[in-house]
Structures are given as C-alpha cells and as structure tokens.
Amino acid sequence: MTPHPKLSISGLNKSFRNRAVKVLSDINLEVADNEFVSLVGASGCGKSTLLAIIAGLQESDNGDVLVDGAPISGPGIDRGVVFQSYTLLPWLTAQQNVEFALRETRYDPKEIADIARHHLDLVKLSRFADSFPSQLSGGMKQRVAIARALSYRPKILLMDEPFGALDALTRGQMQELLMQIWQEHKLTVIFVTHDVSEAVYLSDRIFVMGLNPGRVKETIPVSFARPRTGDEGHDPELRELQARVLRSIRQETSGQDVY
C-alpha cells in the first residue's frame, strides 16, 4: 500500500482463556498517514480487541504492531483513544477533563489550560468549559472525550463505536464534526463501528472482519470524493457498496444471530 505506513500490523494473533479461545488470527494490515479506515464485522469478531491491542491496552500473543516503523510498548500519547462510554471524570469540568489528559506532558500549566481551551473550541464546546459531565448531553460528553483525545496531538486516533449510544440526529452531527476535524488536522483514524452506512460515509477503506476466529476477511475501498455531504446515500453506487459490505458480513453469520 505504502512504503512507509503510519500503522503496520503483521502476523498478529490473540487468544483468551490460556489460548483456548482464539480471538484474532493472522491479522495483517497497513494504514497510511492521514487515512481514515473502519473495522466492521459481526459481534465477537475481535474488532474492539484489535483496537485495544493497537492502543497498547492489551497484548497480543505474537505478531508486530508498528507506528511509524517503531513497535508499540503499551499505551502512548502517539495514539488517542475514544470509547463508546465517555470515560469522563465526573468531579472535573469539561476544561479540567481535557487538562487531565495533559498532566504527564512537557507543557507547563498555562500552556495546558490554553491547549484545553483550544480543543474545546475545536469541538464547539467553549461555552461549556466550566460544566460538569452531569450537566452535558451525551453528544456533548463525547465531544469532550474527542477534545481530550486530540489535545496531546496523537499520530493516530482510535475510536471504538464512539457514536453508538447517541440518537440518530446527534450521531449525524458528530459524524460531520469528526469529518471536519479529520480533514482540517490530517489525522490517521481507525474507527470501529457496527453501522455499515457510517463506515461507508466516513472511510477511505473498510476492513471487513471474519468470525471464529477474527481475521481481516476483505478490504473494501470507498472511492467517493470528499468532502462528503451525506446526500450520497441516494447514489446507486454507494448503495451497492453498502450492500457489498453487508453481504460480506452476513456470509460470516449465516445461521447465527450475532449481528
């Protein structure tokens, strides 16, 4: 794909229960700098486990995970992570939650405050900087989580179904916001979702994962020009692309109620 991928995974395997249950088998993929890719597949195919390994939150049994050619060795500020649950500290304000992520960086306290304010502005939450999580809607909490993940300038943004708990309108707004941030700040994004239409709308490529064990079954490019407006859903080529992704997933789940 590219001689110098931002992320490179080769020969990765992961098992649970003393290796009795194989979750991921021979994962091989590359992601380019500034590329937006999605991982889709049936429940239980290992999407979130793979993301956790890239984040350094879990170890693989074997295989290599390289960022800019260097192996990862646990969590690091080169990778920002956003989960479906907002994981905000309830006793801190939005501003303080973002500042908390910067506490181990080289920035001095004034710089930290300025960086936090800038990233809250980036996600359009400046007016709510002094609000606590209990005073924010679900979409606003997720925007704080995104601001926090971006605040330390990661090379890769890892997102595990970040909009899955939101209503349809808020979800659409968050997708548009993410696209704006990605296009303006040239991030590499790896996005886990169950929503095929979301994956098609957001991605440059889609990795369809197979089941039992989890593996990269198919890589599907999304060739629609950017910026995307959301109106492409009426395009027959886009509908066929969504159908292709769904067919690929359903081939794995025939006779199983897992998706």
UniProtKB/TrEMBL annotation:
PROSITE patterns for the chain: ABC_TRANSPORTER_1, ABC_TRANSPORTER_2
Classification via Pfam families: ABC_tran
MF terms (GO), sorted A to Z: ATP binding; ATP hydrolysis activity
CDD domains: ABC_NrtD_SsuB_transporters
Annotated ranges, domain ABC transporter: 7-236
Coiled coil region boundaries: none
Keywords: ATP-binding, Nucleotide-binding, Transport
Family: Belongs to the ABC transporter superfamily.
Protein's UniProt name: Sulfonate ABC transporter ATP-binding protein
Organism of provenance: Pseudaminobacter soli (ex Li et al. 2025)
